[in-house]
């Protein structure tokens, strides 16, 4: 009965490298990002974490990261569910813009508010609160029951969709989760108790 949940933010994407707001846009991984994903898979395998089931978003940078991790773990014939509920936060009108250009257009303070507030969305986009409202019901309905049933579940997704899960699992406030950075390709591993509460934080 492992009851283990593994969260991994995708490896560096082409738009991470170019300092662009990505959101629901669909760039692939850089060579560095491919390496990060492979290393994550190697670390998980070495530590004995092999998934029973996988979830990822509808975006290829997360899907590619998951595929590379599974390849490194030599895991085949595993079921993968892809769902846009796990997509990155939608940056709306900021999507595709260079972050420096956005600061010039709207001002540094306004862009900072959009990026680092909990409930102020950019024009046409989502706040972190909006992202959590999309991601958490999916987690509670589809992912958490599998973990509570004793499975090891691997979720490859995005900085903000995973932040929403971390906030719930670790019981963080909106202010605390805004300060939490999730590095690309860095596994975050939890053991949950039978009720779905955090029992332990593990490392690979």
Low-confidence stretches: none
How many whole angstroms does the radius of gyration measure?
17 Å
The helix-strand sequence is EHHEHEHHHEHHEE
By CATH, the architecture is named 3-Layer(aba) Sandwich
Distance between the termini: 18 Å
Strand order of the largest sheet: 3-2-4-1-5-6
Percentage of residues in strands: 5-15%
Largest sheet descriptor: 6 strands, mixed
Number-wise, the strands total 6
| Continuous helix count | 8
Protein structure class: alpha/beta
| CATH class call | Alpha Beta
The average pLDDT is 96
| Number of spatially distinct domains | 1
CATH topology name: Rossmann fold
* Helix proportion: 40-55%
CATH superfamily (homologous) name: Phosphoglycerate mutase-like
Gross geometry: globular
Write up what this structure looks like:
- The protein is of the alpha/beta class and 204 residues long.
- It has a single domain (4-202), classed as Phosphoglycerate mutase-like (Rossmann fold, 3-Layer(aba) Sandwich).
- Helices cover 44% and strands 14% of the residues.
- It has eight helices and six strands.
- It has helices spanning 14-17, 31-46, 60-73, 99-106, 108-116, 128-148, 159-170, 174-178; strands at 4-9, 53-56, 80-82, 152-157, 188-192, 198-202.
- Strands 3-2-4-1-5-6 form a six-stranded mixed beta sheet.
- 38% of the residues are buried.
- The mean pLDDT is 96.
Condensed summary:
The chain is of the alpha/beta class and 204 residues long. The protein has helices at residues 14-17, 31-46, 60-73, 99-106, 108-116, 128-148, 159-170, 174-178, and strands at residues 4-9, 53-56, 80-82, 152-157, 188-192, 198-202.
């Amino acid at each position: 009965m492992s009851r283990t949940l593994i969260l991994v933010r995708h490896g560096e994407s082409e738009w991470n490298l170019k300092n662009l707001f990505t959101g629901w846009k669909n760039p692939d991984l850089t060579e560095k990002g491919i390496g990060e994903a492979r290393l994550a898979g190697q670390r998980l395998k070495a530590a004995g974490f092999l998934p029973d089931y996988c979830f990822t978003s509808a975006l290829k940078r997360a899907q590619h990261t998951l595929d590379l991790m599974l390849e490194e773990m030599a895991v085949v014939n595993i079921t993968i569910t892809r769902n846009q509920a796990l997509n990155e936060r939608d940056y709306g009108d900021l999507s595709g813009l260079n972050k420096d250009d956005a600061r010039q257009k709207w001002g540094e303070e306004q862009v900072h508010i959009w990026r680092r507030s909990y409930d102020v969305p950019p024009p046409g986009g989502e706040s972190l609160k909006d992202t959590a409202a999309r991601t958490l019901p999916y987690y509670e309905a589809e992912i958490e029951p599998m973990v509570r049933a004793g499975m090891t579940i691997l979720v490859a997704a995005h900085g903000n969709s995973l932040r929403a899960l971390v906030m719930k699992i670790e019981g963080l406030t909106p202010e605390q989760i805004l300060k939490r950075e999730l590095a690309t390709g860095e596994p975050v591993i939890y053991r949950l108790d039978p009720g779905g509460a955090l029992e332990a934080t593990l490392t690979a």
